[in-house]
Structures are given as structure tokens and as C-alpha cells.
Amino acid sequence: MQQPNRLRPFFENITFDREDNELILNFGPQHPSAHGQLRLMLHMQQEQITKAHPDVGYLHRGMEKMAENMIYNEFMPTTDRMDYIASSSNNYGFALAVERLIGLEVPRRAKVIRMMLLETNRLMSHLFWLATTALDIGAMTVFLYAFREREYLMDLIEDYCGARLTHSAVRIGGVPLDLPDNFIGDLRTFLDKLPANIKDYEDLLDQNRIWLMRMENVGVISKEMALSWGCSGVMLRASGIEWDIRKEEPYELYDEVEFSVPVSDKGDNYARYKLYMEEMRQSAKILEQVIDMYAGTDGALMAHAPQYISAPKLDIMTQNYSLMQHFVLVTQGMRPPVGEVYIPTESPKGELGYYINSQGDAYPYRLKLRAPSFWHTGILTDLLPGHYIPDVVSIIGTTNIVFGEVDR
Amino acid sequence: MRAYTPKDNVQAKPYYTDRFWVAPQVAKHDVSSDAVFESDLNALKSKFEILDAYIQVEQMVVVINAADNFAVLDMLKNSLQYNQLSEMSAIDWLAKEGKFEIFYQMLSMSKRKRLRIKCKIDEKESIQSVEKLFRCADWSEREMYDMFGVVVNNHPFMKRILMPDDWEGFPLRKTYPLQGDEFAAWYEVDKIFGKEAREIIGPENRDPARIDRYDTERFARLGHEVPRGVDITNGEPDTPLVYQEKNGAFLITKFDPETSVTITDRNR
């Protein structure tokens, strides 16, 4: 241990030898491959890791505390800051939890728009994952291609809600806006090109010698380990467990669309990479089906529940009682019934759950955010030992962790 | 008279609540309405004391004694096929009954069911770790300790996880102020510069909405611009608004600062 004093201060990034020749290496918290503020303390024997100790909390903003001191609608923009790569998924998870607590049914058009948002966010997140992971491993070209496609999607989302990263595009009870005129056409254009784009990435990576060396049989997660560590999403499915919340506990319109859930039993980095690629194809498939559903819906965007949800703008502007209710809902906030819910959704990273304990107040009494990345970081404790330094980077890459979500 | 704020709960309160407001309840259904949950509950009942059980929003909630937590989760995992612990944490009921409520959110993939185990412990009481059953509890229990100060027995590494190791106080307790306490305001100053520097630096500004009216280091006031860092506590000079554009400002054609009136009396 270091013995810091005034003359010899504590150095965070110092590496030093112990008597037993065990080296302690400090990785992060400011490391370009750490995908955020991850600090790893690695015990090394030569180049091999014997013990890993992830240290998180550098981005801790106390979101659960903030939620306890806000009205429900006020918290919505804060959820954007969890998984900021796919922020509509977080908005949606929160909205769904509150809707189930109240017992609201959302209009069909809002459901269709939400499905579009969720799946474009999944595509954005997976493209971002591919870009950054490939960049970490040295495949600069893939990074540029994948960001080009992601940019197109971000423009699309910008057309819808005006924001590119922190969307807040979902409201409790529905969605705030209808799709702009050009949206579906632009989305179709994108979906037409996407298969060719995915094929480009795969041509660059699938048989790439360096990519295979860094990915195959590296970071193998067994079935038992994935279950025990609370893994979800691709991390779970790459280990041979077929569990996708969209399929098993369908929410929104996922029981009406046709898609398949890719599973692998390898459990290594390469399996996870292949699953991400396949999930992108499936997302595109879902989007194509959802586009067709849009035409058959009527215009309602928000649920009708005057006690909880403000009336449409037209009513607020023309009817006195709607205006009064809107005023109360904005200044005091809605008061959901007394009770508790835990609602999981399949976010691009895994199982994103919101536990809400309501005591009938305008503020939740307790709100627990179940973020998948938290456990996908925790698993590094057991996953990294036995691997070598370069593997750390590729393993962190394929776990797809985002620190807005880990630290909350 | 100063407004009364209860010391055991310093969280934000709604500024107005109707006197006759009675909050509705989320429906609690009997466990017998679901065959799978009923058989699970009977299996649990045969071995443990069940204080309460019901179904709420399609998930079963089972209230048990805190001492049984490990054994109940062991049974759920090994004989009732609840193979994943999705989430666990605590709820602060100290103000109401002096207790913490611990909940374990369980998932059974083969049955496609979720249930929640709940138990209550006193403030100073500790709880048994379930890390031996579910590795993910390692981090969850650390987070629970970090946020609430609930000590977990037999945990391999009982340390804070999100807050710094030497932090004082437990942020998610209802007694912890939203913008931090005295310790929080001095933490970084003490840590980086030492206690001697307190006088020079001052406490950390933990109110994100605070505005320093006389700050000329970072802000200038339109129409009252002064050089950076000038002390304006005794008033600042007016600087007349002059537009750089030749034919007046873009879009603003009729504005003439000479003839317009500046309102100085806010209550006018």
C-alpha cells in the first residue's frame, strides 16, 4: 500500500511491485476504452490478471434521490441521462411503469410511435456499440461507417422530437407529438439501405484475423455465471439462455409483430458481436412491420385520464375545466394510487426495470432504477481474472456498459 | 412563524394537498387467483412463516421474517426455479415505524413469473447476505449499504460502491438533505486543499440554481457591463445599448434606446 503524506502524496495511477511480484495496475477512470468513468484495479502476474476490482461511482448523480423529490412528469428528462445512447428506451420504461401503476391504456397510434422510437433507439445503440468496440480494437473504418448510419437515425429522431441525444420523446400516457410528414419515408429509405450496411460491417469484421483473435474464446461467460450475475439482454442470450422480455413478457405491440430472438451458446465476445448484428436485422424487421401499422390508427396520442393526464392542447385552449386540470397537474403533479410496481423492459443493453413505490403522493416514495449495465460491470470481477491486458479492452467493449446507467 | 419541517423526513413535500384527499389503492388480488403463484406460496408456507402474500400488478409479493431471507431465497432458487435475482434494495420507513424494508425482486424464466420477497428490519439491525446464492447481490448489497447504511452480514467486501469510501451519511435516507449536508459541502475542499484552505475557498455550492447577484467573474448583465472581476456590490454603471449594425439590428427595426423607458420599479 502507498503511505501518502504531505511530501509523498497519493498517486492514483502509480504501478508498483509487491514483494510477491504481484503488480497492481490501475486502469481508468479516464481511459478511452473504459466507455466512461470506469476504474479497474487489476492484480497482475506478469501479463495475466489474477484479480479484478471494478470501481464505479464517478458519474453518480443520485437519480433515485432526485426522483423522490420530483413530480412524476418532472423526472422524465432525468431518465434520458441514464443510458444516453438510447434515451427513449429509458423514457419509455419509466412511462410504462407509471402507466401500469395507474392502470392506463395508451392509444394505438401512441403505441405504434413508441415502437418506432424504441426500435430506432435500439438500432442507434447497437450501431454505437459496434462503432466504439471496433474502434477500441483498432477497426477505424467500421467506426466511421457505423457512425454514418447512426447519424442518419439521430437526424430522424431530431425530426421527430427536436433532440438528438436526450430525447424525452415519450410521455406518461402516450407520446407528445405525431410523426412529421417525412418521417416514414425517411425511415423506409434508411431501412432499405441497412441490410447492405450491416453486410459491409460483417464483411469487414467477420473473417478479419485481428478481430477473430481479439474476440473468439475471449471473455467466455457460462450459463450459470450469467444467471447468477443478473445478466440480461445480449449478455444473457450469448450464453445460451433464450430470454428476451419483448418475447416472453410482451409489452406495447411486441406480441403483434414477428421477429426472432438470436441466441448463441458460445458465451464469448464473438458470440455477443454476432448477436448484436443479428438484433439490428431483427429491429429493422420490426420497424418495417410497425410502419405498416401506422396508417390504420386514429389520431389520439395521449390516454384519456383527466385525473392523471392533461387534456389535448386544443381542449386546454378552449375549455375552462381542461385548463384547470392542466394547471393542477403541472403545478402539483399527478397522484398515482398507493401501491408498488416493478416493470422490466428490454432496453438495448438488457433488462431495464423501474421499481416504483407510491404512497399516493405527487412524488414517488421510492424509485429504484434497475439498470442492466450495473451488473454487466459487476461481472468483470469474475470475468477478467485469467485474461490478459488487451482482452480487458475487448471484454469491456462487448459488455456494452454505459456509465450514465451504472452510476445513475 | 417559521414553517415547520419534520426532522425525520426532509424530502420535498407537495405544497398543497387537499384535506379530504384519500389516495386510491392499486388492487391487491388474492394469491389463489393464480395457480403457479399459489403452489409456490404453499411450498414456502410449509417451511417458513409468511406474514402476508398478495398479487399486485401481476406479480406476487410475499412478506417474510428478515431472519429467513437466505433460506427463502435458497428455496426459491433451488427448488422453485426462480433462477435470477433481478433487483434488490431497501426502502426507508424510519420516520413512520423505525424500520427499513428490504425487497428482493425474483424472476423465474421457466415459469415466466416474477415475485417480490419483502422483509423489514430495525435501523441498527443487519441482514444476511444472499451473495452465496446470487453473485449479483454482491453489488446490490453494497449499494444498499452505501445508500441506506443497512449492514449486510457475511458479505465478502462490505464497502461503499457509488459514494467515496470515506463519505459520511447515507444519501437515500429520508433524513439526508437533498443538497447534501455540512460534510458534503466541505468534502472536496478538505480532500484536495486541506482543512486550512476552508477560509480561502469556502464551502462548495451545492445548489445548482444559486445565482450570485454580484458575480462579475463569470457573468455580465446586459446594459450594465463592467470589466471582469470589478466589485459591483455598491452599484454598477449603466452602459447604453449600442448596436453594431449599420442600419440597426437585424429584425429589430423600430427600437430606439434613447426614447424607450427602462422599468426600474418592479412593483409598478
Notes on the structure:
- The complex is a heterodimer of chains A (408) and B (268).
- Chain A folds into two domains: 1-60 and 371-384 and 399-408, no CATH class; 63-369, Cytochrome-c3 Hydrogenase, chain B (Orthogonal Bundle).
- With 408 residues, chain A is an alpha+beta fold.
- Chain A contains 17 helices and seven strands.
- A four-stranded antiparallel β-sheet of chain A has the order 1-2-3-4. In chain A, strands 5-6-7 form a three-stranded antiparallel β-sheet.
- The radius of gyration of chain A is 23 Å and the shape is globular.
- Chain B has 268 residues and is of the alpha/beta class.
- Chain B folds into three domains: 28-153, Beta Polymerase, domain 2 (2-Layer Sandwich), CATH 3.30.460; 177-210, no CATH class; 211-255, no CATH class.
- Chain B is 20% helix and 18% strand.
- Chain B has six helices and eight strands.
- Chain B has helices at 35-45, 69-78, 94-97, 137-148, 182-193, 198-201; strands spanning 28-29, 50-56, 59-64, 84-93, 99-108, 113-122, 127-128, 152-153.
- A six-stranded mixed β-sheet of chain B has the order 1-2-3-6-5-4.
- In chain B, a hairpin with a 2-residue loop joins strand 2 and strand 3 (59-64).
- The longest helix of chain B is centred in the middle third of the chain and has 12 residues, at 137-148.
- Chain B is elongated, with a radius of gyration of 29 Å.
- At the A-B interface, helix 1, helix 8, strand 5, strand 6 and strand 7 of A face strand 4 and helix 4 of B.
Short description:
The complex is a heterodimer of chains A (408) and B (268). In chain A, 49% of the residues lie in helices and 11% in strands. Chain A has helices at residues 63-68, 72-80, 87-102, 108-137, 140-161, 183-205, 209-215, 223-228, 234-237, 245-248, 269-294, 313-318, 320-331, 372-378, 380-383, 389-399, 403-407, and strands at residues 16-17, 23-27, 39-45, 48-55, 339-347, 350-358, 366-370.
